[in-house]
Amino acid sequence: MTPRRVLFVCLGNICRSPMAEVLFRHHARQAGCSAEFEIDSAGTSNWEVGSPPDPRMRRTAARHGVPLDGRARQFRATDFDRFDVILAMDRENRSHLTWMARDEKDRGKVHLMREFDPRADDSPDVPDPYGGGERAFEEVYQMLDRSTRSLLDSLSTP
C-alpha cells in the first residue's frame, strides 16, 4: 500500500507547521497507522531555511511530551507532485500555495488546517505565535493537537 503523503505549511516552518507535523506523526503512531503516512512540513518563505524550530515551540512541545526537532525548509512547486494533501496554517499561506499551483489538481490538494479543528471559531487561521508569549504557543499547540487528530481520523476513514 502506498502511504498517503501529508505536508503542513506555514510561513517560516519554525513554529506551526513543524508542530503540526510532529503531532500528526505522534497521533498516527498512537493509532497504529504511522506506516500509512509520509509526513513533512515546509514554509512559504525562505527566511528560516535550515533553522531549528522556535525554542518557545520546542518548550511547549516538551511540556506535552512531544519531541520537536528538524530544520526548516521552503515549499517547492515539486511538493505538489510529492504530496497528496497540503495543509496551510492560514489564509495567507493558502493564497501563496494556490498562486504557486500549476493547475486545479494542485489547488485541490491545498486545505486550511482549521478545516479539521472541531472547535474552530470564526477565524479559519491558525494564528502565528511568533510575536506572542508562551500562552500564544500553548494555544497554537492545542489548536494543532485537535486539528491533527481530526485530520488523521478523516484520512484514515476508508
Detailed description of the structure:
With 158 residues, the chain is of the alpha/beta class. It has one domain: Response regulator (Rossmann fold), CATH 3.40.50. Helix content is 42%, strand content 13%. The protein is built from 6 helices and 4 strands. The chain has helices at 16-30, 55-63, 79-82, 91-100, 104-108, 134-156, and strands at residues 4-10, 37-43, 85-88, 110-112. A 4-stranded parallel β-sheet has the order 2-1-3-4.
User: What portion of residues is helical?
Assistant: 40-55%
Main beta-sheet strand count, sense and barrel state: 4 strands, parallel
Q: What is the fourth-level CATH superfamily?
A: Response regulator
What is the name of the CATH class? Alpha Beta
**pLDDT < 50 stretches:** none
Give the neighbour order of strands across the main sheet: 2-1-3-4
Number of strands: 4
Q: What is the distance, rounded to the nearest whole angstrom, between the alpha carbons of the first and last residues?
A: 13 Å
The sequence of SSEs as H and E is EHEHHEHHEH
Find the structural class using helix and strand composition. alpha/beta
Overall number of structural domains: 1
CATH topology: Rossmann fold
Query: What is the arithmetic mean of pLDDT?
Result: 95
Number of helices: 6
| Fraction in beta strands | 5-15%
Rg from Cα:
14 Å
Apparent shape:
globular
CATH architecture: 3-Layer(aba) Sandwich
